[in-house]
C-alpha cells in the first residue's frame, strides 16, 4: 500500500495536440494518501475515466508521472501495479464458481491453496457472498456480480488501490442504496485506498472523504464533501454539487460594491476595489436562501413538493432563483421577502471565487 | 376470459411451407417410397418392406464408406476448429487490417465447390501442378492419384483450405463481442494468456463455436463435389465417402431401392450425430 | 379523453405479472407508476399501449373498448429508458418520421418539427445524427418524436434513468411544462420516489404486480393506504418496527415508549418512520431517544445518512449537516414520533402523522 501521486499529468488521445481542446486531460497535480476514500466526480466527457485508466495503467499519459509511494509506475502495465478495479458492467468469470472467481487473483499469483481458502472465506463474509460460494457466478444478479468484482479486489493483500468505474450503473435503484452503504462500510473495515469515479453526486459525496470535481478535462476543485457544498471555488461546482444546484445571479462590481439591479449585496468573500473588469456573479445555495421579514422582495412562480422539503421557484430582481423550504413552513403565495445571508453569499469573477484562484 | 385471436400471421408462414414442401418434404417422401420397394424396370414396383435397410446395414461396402466418412469428418474437425480459433485469436481487433484480414478470410468461401476441386486437382498434379511438382522436386514421392495416403492428405488439405475460414469468421465474431472490461479485469487479476483464453475467450466463444462445429460437421458429412472432382473416390475406393458411394449405387448401378434406403440411413446418422453434438455442447448452458 | 383499465390482468403460464387491476387515468396531469424494478411497471405500460394483450379484463379509451386492438391503429407514443432513434436519420428526420407515416404535407411537418424542437431545446442540432449528440440530447430527440404527433396516449418508461444526474434534474423540471397544454393521457414510470414527488400529478404505486394505491401524488405520499405503498414511496427506505399500544402508550421495548395517537385502539402495529424524521440531534423535547449502534455514516456535504441498528431493527437517519460517527460506535438518535405512520398487522394504514403537512393552501 502506498500514497498515490499524480505529477504534472496531462493526456491527449491525439498524436499532436495543439489547441487546449485537444487535451482530454489538462495538466493536474494530485496527492492521495494511503487508505483514503476518493471520488472523481464530473459530467460525461470530463476526463474522469481517462484519469482512472491512467492510474490503473490501462492508458499511458502523454505527459507527467504516476507515483505509487516513491515508485514511478508510469510505464508499468496494470498487472504490475497491484491495483484492482470494479467496472461499470459486472465482470465475472462465467464458467467458475463464486469461490473460484474470488480465488482467481490469488491462484494467478501462485498463492498456496492452503492460504487461498481462509482468505476467500474471509472476503466472502465481508461481501455477503458466503452462501453462494459454490454456485456458478453466471447465475448471480447484477449486484451479486459487482460484489464478486469487489471481492476479487479485496482478496489480495498487496493491493495498492481499488478503483471503481461507475459501479452502480446497472444495479437496481432500490439495491443501489444498500450496495452504496456496503462499500462505505467495507472501506471502514479494510482501509485500502479507494477511488470512485461517477457522475452521480450522491454516490461521490456519500462514499468519499475527498472529492475531485472535474469539468472539461480539468480539476475544478478538490475538497471534502462539506467544503464542496459550503465553499464552491467555481460556479460549476456550485451548480454540479447540490440538488438543485447553487443559484447564480449576474451582478456588477461598482466602487467596491456588489450590485444587482441597483440593489447592493454583502458577500462572504472579498470584493475587488474600484470598478474591476470581468464577468461577475453572486452565488447562493437554495438551502441558504431564506424567507424572512426584511430583505429582497420576490414573487413565487411554482412550488414543487419533494417530501421532506419543497423547492420554491421565485423571481427576484428579474432572475429566477430556487430555494428550499422546510416541510412545515408556509410559503405566502402573493410574494415573499428573501434574506441573502452574507455568510453564504459569494462573489465569483469569470466563474472563479474572488479572493481565491482568479 | 376475453381472448381475441389474430389468424393473419398464418399467411406469412404459407410461402415458406410451400417452398419447404417442394424442395424437402416431397423429394424426401419419394425417397421413402423407393426405399421400401423393388423394381425391375418398366416403372413397375413391388413392395419389399425393410429388406433394403437390412441389406445396407449388413453390407461391408456401406461399413467401409461410413468408416471413411467418419475418419474424414473427424480429421477436418480436429484440424479446422483449433486452427480457426487460433487464426481468429491472432487477427487484429481494430484498424485498417481488420477489413483486409476479413476479406482474405472470406475469399475461399466465395469459390464454387467444383472449382475448388478442379483447382486442387491441377495444383496437386505430381508432374505439372505447383504443389505436386514441388513436393516431388523436394524428394517426396507424392502422387495423389496412385497412393492412398497422398490422396487423403490432399483431400483433407483441400477441405482445411476451403473451410477453416468459416470457423475463423465465426470465432472472430465471438471474440470481438467480448467487452474490453473483461480483458482489463483479467490483466488486473494477473491472469496468464492461457487463463484469459480458458476463462474468458473460450466461454464467450462457446455459442458461436457450437454453430461452427455443427455446420462443419453437417457439411463435411455431406461433402461430394470436391472429392469427386479431386480424386473421384480413388485410388480404388480409398476416398469413396458416403455420398460418393451413394451416387455410385443410385446412378452408376441404378439400384434405386438400396440407394434410397442408404439415403435414409445416411440422413438419420447425420440427424442423430448433430443432435448429440448439440446436446453435449449446450448441456451446461442453463445452469 | 380517459384511459380506463377494467380488471386488466396479465399472466404468462402460471406466472402472474399483473393481477387484475382497475385504474382510471385522466388527461392534463402526469400519471406516475412508481415501483421497483420488476414490480410490473413496464408490463402495465405495454398493456396500456396495446403492444401486448391482457389475459383478462378490458382496456377502454375514451369510452371505447380497445382491448386487443393493434397498437398501430391506436394513437400512442412511447419513450423508453434507452435512447431509441433512427441512427441513419438526422434529428429533423427522426422527429418528422411519425408525421411522414401519417402523410402530412411538407409545410405542416416543418412547422411542427420546428415548434417541438424549440420546446425541447434541440433546434440547434436538427441536422446532426443521433450518434453525434450527448445522451441528454438523444433522449430529447426521442421525446420530440413522441410528442410531435398528437398522440392520445403518451407512455414514458423511465425516460431519465440513463441520463447523468444533472441532466436528469434539468429535464425533470421541463417535463411537466411540455405536457401542460396537451389533451392526452400521460403515463410516466419511475423507480424513484423523489422523481414522482417532483413531477406531481397522480401516482399509482406498484408492488409485485399489484397497484397498492392510486391518487394525487401528495396524498399517496403523506397518507399511503398500506405498508407496501409507504415502503415503495420512501427513499431512503422507511424505518420499520413492531410496536405495541396499550392504554394510550406506544411501546417499542419495555423502557422505550411514547404517547400513542388517540385514534388507535390497543394492539400490535407496525411503525413506519421516514428517515428524515430520525436525527442525531434532539430538536424538540418530545422526540424519542433511541439507543443504537452505528453501522456506517455517509456524509454527503449538506446532509448525512446514518445507518444504524436499534433493538434488532435496521434503521436509517437522513439529516441536514455533517454528523460524523465511527462505525460500531454506540449512539443515541432521536425519533420524531409525531411523524410516524402506524399500520395494522394486515398492513393497512391505521394512523398517519397529524403534523407537518406544511403545504400552502393555494399550493402548487
CATH top-level class of chain B: Mainly Alpha
- Number of helical regions of chain B: 12
CATH H level, superfamily name of the largest domain in chain C: P-loop containing nucleotide triphosphate hydrolases
SS elements, strand count of chain B: 2
Number of helices of chain C: 8
The number of distinct β-strands of chain C equals 21
Which CATH architecture of chain B?
Answer: Orthogonal Bundle
- Write down the domain tally of chain B: 1
- How many angstroms separate the termini of chain C? 24 Å
What would you report as the Rg of chain B, rounded to the nearest angstrom?
24 Å
Proportion of β residues of chain B? under 5%
CATH class of the largest domain in chain C: Alpha Beta
The CATH H-level superfamily of chain B is: MetI-like
From the structure provided, what is the oligomeric state, counting identical versus distinct chains? heterotrimer
Averaging pLDDT over every residue of chain C, what do you get? Answer: 89
Helix content of chain B: over 70%
Instruction: Report the uncertain regions of chain C.
Output: 358-364
Order of helices and strands of chain B: HEEHHHHHHHHHHH
C-alpha end-to-end distance of chain B: 36 Å
What does this structure look like?
The complex is a heterotrimer of chains A (358), B (287) and C (364). Chain A is globular, with a radius of gyration of 24 Å. The longest helix of chain A has 17 residues. Chain A is of the alpha+beta class and 358 residues long. Chain A is 23% helix and 34% strand. In chain A, helix 2 crosses helix 3 and helix 2 packs parallel to helix 4. Chain A has a six-stranded mixed β-sheet, sandwiched between helices. A six-stranded antiparallel β-sheet of chain A has the order 13-12-11-14-19-20. Chain B has a single domain, classed as MetI-like (MetI-like fold, Orthogonal Bundle). Chain B has a two-stranded antiparallel sheet with strand order 1-2. The longest helix of chain B is centred in the first third of the chain and has 31 residues. Chain B is globular and about 75 Å long. Chain C is of the alpha+beta class and 364 residues long. Chain C folds into two domains: 230 residues, Rossmann fold (3-Layer(aba) Sandwich), CATH 3.40.50; 113 residues, Beta Barrel (OB fold (Dihydrolipoamide Acetyltransferase, E2P)). Helices cover 23% and strands 34% of the residues of chain C. At the A-C interface, helix 5, helix 6, helix 7 and strand 15 of A face helix 5, helix 6, helix 7 and strand 16 of C.
Amino acid at each position: 500500500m502506498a500514497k498515490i501521486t499524480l505529477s504534472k499529468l496531462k493526456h491527449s488521445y491525439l498524436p499532436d495536440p495543439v489547441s487546449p481542446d485537444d487535451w482530454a486531460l489538462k495538466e493536474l497535480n494530485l496527492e492521495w494518501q494511503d487508505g483514503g476514500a476518493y471520488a472523481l466526480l464530473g459530467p460525461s466527457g470530463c476526463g474522469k475515466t481517462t484519469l482512472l485508466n491512467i492510474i490503473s495503467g490501462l492508458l499511458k499519459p502523454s505527459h507527467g508521472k504516476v507515483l505509487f509511494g516513491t515508485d514511478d509506475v508510469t510505464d508499468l502495465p496494470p498487472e504490475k501495479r497491484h491495483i484492482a478495479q470494479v467496472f461499470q458492467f459486472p465482470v465475472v468469470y462465467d464458467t467458475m464458481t463464486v469461490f473460484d472467481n474470488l480465488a482467481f487473483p490469488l491462484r494467478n499469483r501462485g498463492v498456496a491453496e492452503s492460504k487461498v481458502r481462509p482468505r476467500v472465506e474471509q472476503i466472502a463474509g465481508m461481501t455477503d457472498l458466503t452462501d453462494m460460494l459454490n454456485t456458478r457466478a453466471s447465475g448471480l444478479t447484477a449486484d451479486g456480480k459487482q460484489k464478486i468484482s469487489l471481492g476479487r479486489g479485496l482478496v489480495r493483500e498487496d493491493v495498492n488501490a481499488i478503483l471503481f468505474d461507475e459501479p452502480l450503473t446497472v444495479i437496481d435503484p432500490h439495491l443501489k442504496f444498500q450496495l452504496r452503504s456496503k462499500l462505505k462500510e467495507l472501506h471502514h473495515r479494510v482501509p485500502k485506498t479507494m477511488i470512485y469515479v461517477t457522475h452521480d453526486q450522491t454516490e461521490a459525496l456519500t462514499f468519499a472523504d475527498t472529492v475531485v470535481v472535474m469539468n472539461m478535462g480539468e480539476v475544478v476543485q478538490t475538497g471534502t464533501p462539506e467544503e464542496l457544498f459550503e465553499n464552491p471555488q467555481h460556479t460549476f461546482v456550485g451548480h454540479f454539487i447540490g440538488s438543485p444546484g447553487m443559484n447564480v445571479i449576474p451582478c456588477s462590481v461598482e466602487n467596491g460594491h456588489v450590485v444587482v439591479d441597483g440593489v447592493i449585496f454583502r458577500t462572504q468573500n472579498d470584493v475587488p476595489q474600484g470598478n474591476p473588469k470581468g464577468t461577475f456573479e453572486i452565488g447562493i445555495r437554495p438551502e441558504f436562501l431564506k424567507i424572512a421579514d426584511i430583505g429582497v422582495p420576490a414573487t413565487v412562480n411554482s412550488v414543487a413538493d419533494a417530501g421532506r422539503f419543497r423547492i420554491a421557484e421565485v423571481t427576484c430582481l428579474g432572475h429566477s432563483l430556487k430555494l428550499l423550504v422546510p416541510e412545515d413552513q408556509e410559503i405566502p403565495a402573493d410574494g415573499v421577502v428573501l434574506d441573502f445571508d452574507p455568510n453564504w453569499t459569494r462573489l465569483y469573477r469569470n466563474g472563479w471565487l474572488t479572493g481565491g484562484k482568479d | 376470459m376475453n381472448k381475441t385471436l389474430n389468424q393473419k400471421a398464418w399467411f406469412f408462414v404459407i410461402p415458406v411451407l410451400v417452398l419447404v414442401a417442394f424442395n424437402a418434404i416431397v423429394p424426401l417422401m419419394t425417397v421413402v417410397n423407393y426405399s421400401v420397394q423393388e423394381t425391375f424396370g418398366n416403372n413397375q414396383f413391388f413392395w419389399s418392406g425393410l429388406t433394403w435397410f437390412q441389406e445396407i446395414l449388413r453390407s461391408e461396402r456401406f461399413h467401409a464408406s461410413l468408416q471413411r466418412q467418419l475418419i474424414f469428418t473427424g480429421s477436418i474437425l480436429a484440424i479446422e476448429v483449433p486452427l480457426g480459433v487460433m487464426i481468429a485469436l491472432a487477427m487484429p481487433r481494430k484498424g485498417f487490417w481488420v477489413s483486409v484480414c476479413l476479406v482474405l478470410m472470406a475469399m475461399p468461401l466465395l469459390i464454387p465447390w467444383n472449382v475448388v476441386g478442379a483447382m486442387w486437382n491441377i495444383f496437386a498434379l505430381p508432374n505439372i501442378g505447383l504443389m505436386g511438382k514441388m513436393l516431388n522436386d523436394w524428394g517426396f514421392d507424392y502422387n495423389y492419384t496412385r497412393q492412398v495416403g497422398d490422396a487423403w492428405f490432399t483431400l483433407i488439405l483441400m477441405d482445411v483450405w476451403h473451410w477453416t475460414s468459416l470457423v475463423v469468421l465465426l470465432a472472430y465474431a465471438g471474440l470481438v463481442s467480448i467487452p474490453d472490461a473483461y480483458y482489463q479485469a483479467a490483466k488486473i487479476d494477473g491472469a496468464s494468456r492461457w487463463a484469459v483464453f480458458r476463462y474468458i475467450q473460450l466461454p464467450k466463444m462457446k455459442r458461436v463455436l457450437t454453430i461452427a462445429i455443427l455446420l462443419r460437421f453437417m457439411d463435411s458429412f455431406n461433402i461430394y463435389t470436391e472429392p469427386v472432382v479431386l480424386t473421384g473416390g480413388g485410388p480404388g475406393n480409398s476416398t469413396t465417402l458416403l455420398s460418393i458411394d451413394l451416387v455410385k449405387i443410385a446412378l452408376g448401378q441404378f439400384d434405386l431401392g438400396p440407394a434410397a434406403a442408404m439415403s435414409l440411413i445416411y440422413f438419420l446418422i447425420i440427424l442423430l450425430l448433430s443432435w448429440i453434438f448439440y446436446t453435449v455442447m449446450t448441456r451446461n448452458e442453463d445452469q | 379523453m380517459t384511459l380506463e383499465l377494467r380488471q386488466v390482468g396479465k399472466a404468462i403460464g402460471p406466472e402472474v405479472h399483473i393481477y387484475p387491476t382497475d385504474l382510471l387515468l385522466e388527461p392534463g396531469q402526469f400519471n406516475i407508476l412508481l415501483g421497483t424494478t420488476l414490480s410490473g411497471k413496464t408490463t402495465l405500460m405495454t398493456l396500456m399501449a396495446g403492444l401486448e394483450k391482457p389475459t383478462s379484463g378490458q382496456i377502454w379509451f375514451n369510452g371505447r373498448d380497445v382491448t386487443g386492438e393493434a397498437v398501430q391503429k391506436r394513437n400512442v407514443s412511447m419513450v423508453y429508458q434507452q435512447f431509441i432513434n433512427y441512427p441513419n436519420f438526422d434529428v429533423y428526420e427522426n422527429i418528422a418520421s411519425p408525421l411522414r407515416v401519417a402523410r402530412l404535407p411538407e409545410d405542416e411537418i416543418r412547422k411542427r418539427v420546428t415548434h417541438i424542437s424549440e420546446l425541447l431545446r434541440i433546434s440547434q442540432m436538427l441536422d446532426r445524427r443521433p450518434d453525434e449528440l450527448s445522451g441528454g440530447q438523444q433522449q430529447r430527440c426521442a421525446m420530440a418524436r413522441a410528442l410531435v404527433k398528437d398522440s392520445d396516449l403518451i407512455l414514458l418508461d423511465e425516460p431519465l434513468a440513463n441520463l447523468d444526474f444533472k441532466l436528469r434534474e434539468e429535464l425533470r423540471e421541463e417535463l411537466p411544462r411540455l405536457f401542460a397544454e396537451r389533451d392526452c393521457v400521460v403515463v410516466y414510470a419511475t423507480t424513484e420516489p423523489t422523481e414522482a414527488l417532483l413531477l406531481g400529478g397522480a401516482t399509482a404505486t406498484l408492488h409485485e404486480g399489484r397497484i397498492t394505491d392510486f391518487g394525487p401524488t401528495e396524498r399517496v405520499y403523506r397518507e399511503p393506504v398500506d405498508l407496501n405503498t409507504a415502503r415503495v414511496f420512501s427513499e431512503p427506505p422507511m424505518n420499520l418496527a413492531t410496536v405495541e399500544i396499550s392504554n394510550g402508550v406506544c411501546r417499542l421495548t419495555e423502557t422505550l415508549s411514547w404517547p400513542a395517537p388517540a385514534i388507535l385502539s390497543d394492539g400490535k402495529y407496525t411503525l413506519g418512520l421516514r428517515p428524515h424524521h430520525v436525527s442525531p440531534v434532539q430538536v424538540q423535547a418530545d422526540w424519542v431517544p433511541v439507543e443504537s449502534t452505528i453501522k456506517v455514516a455517509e456524509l454527503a456535504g449538506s446532509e448525512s445518512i446514518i445507518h444504524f441498528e436499534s433493538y434488532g431493527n435496521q434503521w436509517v437517519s437522513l439529516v441536514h449537516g455533517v454528523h460524523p460517527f465511527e462505525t460500531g460506535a454506540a449512539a443515541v438518535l432521536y425519533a420524531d414520533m409525531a411523524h410516524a405512520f402506524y399500520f395494522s398487522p394486515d398492513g393497512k394504514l391505521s394512523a398517519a402523522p397529524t403534523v407537518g403537512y406544511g403545504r400552502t393552501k393555494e399550493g402548487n
